Amino acid sequence: MRILLCGNGIVSEKYLDTYRMVRENVKGYVISDDIPLPQNSENVFHISDLCKVEFDELDIANSHFETVVQILEVGIKKEKIVLCYVGLVYEYLKQYGKLDVRVRVPAVLTSMMVESGMVYGNRIGSINNTELVINEDYCRRGTLQLLAREINERGIIGDVAELGVYRGDFSQYINEAFPDRNLYLFDTFEGFWKEQEMQNVSSGFSREIDIMNSDFSDTCVSTVMKKMIHPHRVIIRKGLFPETIPDEPIGFAFVSIDCDLYQPILDGLRYFFPRLSNRGYIMLHDYNNPKFSVGVKKALSDYEEEIGERVMYVPIPDESGSIVIMK
Ligand SMILES: C[S@@+](CC[C@H](N)C(=O)[O-])C[C@H]1O[C@@H](n2cnc3c(N)ncnc32)[C@H](O)[C@@H]1O
User: Fold this and answer.
1) How confident is the model at residue 2 (pLDDT cuts 50, 70, 90)?
2) What is the mean pLDDT of the chain?
């Protein structure tokens, strides 16, 4: 078995972690034509050279749909293409209306769950007449949907927000779940600020390698906005939080804080928690994620010390060990 892998970031790391068979059979790497080939590497190929290379399957494990389009354009047979990231599957269906390439992503596939209405995940299509429910951090997304249902059905007042947006992958679901509320999106939209990054490492809140591996700079506002289904509801606050806090008074019904680093998380709690409506929720990411939990936990406990009271929360078993804070 000769597998070529297209992707070298967190997505491919997770993919290789999950599938041992793939790990053992990767024989080469594929990169976009605009990235120079590394010197003396015989097993790295440009997309446009793929027709000259022999392989059994090409696993696309990154979050950039452009690479799928480019690979299709050079004429690679569809039966050799494997989509390894749920966002690609979702986008593929949106663009082409059917799934005629292969897919290898963790999926929840119980028809009983579907029939009983227990599924709040991303039900996107069918393969061999089996409903395919993609597990794109199913627990995180399902939790958001249920919290949104609570908030909307109970008429909890307030806008919604995400601090730490990156490419808008979670923000889009917040936007979808709250079509009638303003969605404030706080991010540099240029990745981590070097100083805060180094501060986090020197304070022992995260390891340098975990931060350096993903600096989140490959994004911009238009990438995020393209994903929003109610774009007129989105208010972009670009820059270093908390400098980007709006002047006007705002109340919040739902907030996602997902910025990895101690300082902005503490600043986020200082800003959002006092403005959170009664029976509103804050999803705080990475609380039980070993890569970041030291800083995240300290941010929450320092905040509790500042306000002189305990914050109520429930841990959830999503991929990054989020907690749901409530009032
Ligand atoms: C883990 S990513 C967010 C992922 C996103 N929530 C998702 O689920 O796809 C962390 C983001 O936090 C942002 N960030 C970290 N510190 C920040 C700060 N002080 N101000 C603004 N953005 C910040 C980074 O730019 C990065 O985009």
Assistant:
1) very high
2) 87
Give the CATH class of 3-105: alpha beta
Residue that wins the pLDDT comparison between 108 and 197: 197
Q: How far apart are CA 192 and CA 211, in angstroms?
A: 9
Ligand 1 contact via 125 beta carbon (within 6 Å) = no
For the 138-326 domain, the top CATH level (class) is alpha beta
- Please indicate whether residue 260, judged by its CB atom, sits closer than 6 Å to ligand 1: yes
Which pLDDT does position 23 carry in this prediction? 86
Going from the Cα of 116 to the center of ligand 1, the distance in angstroms, rounded, reads: 36
Confidence (pLDDT) at 119: 41
Strand order across the 276-284 sheet = 234-238, 183-187, 159-163, 252-257, 276-284, 323-326, 312-315
Same fold, 3-105 and 138-326: yes
| Residue burial 139-151, b: 16+ Cβ < 10 Å; e: rest | bbbbbbbebbebb
Going by alpha carbons, the residue nearest to atom 9 of ligand 1 is 169
Q: Is 216 in the pocket of ligand 1 (CB under 6 A)?
A: yes
Residue with the smallest CA separation from ligand 1 atom 5 is 165
pLDDT grade for 94, boundaries at 50, 70 and 90: confident
Q: Is 267 in the pocket of ligand 1 (CB under 6 A)?
A: no
The answer to whether the CB of 188 is under 6 A from ligand 1 is yes
pLDDT of residue 124: 46
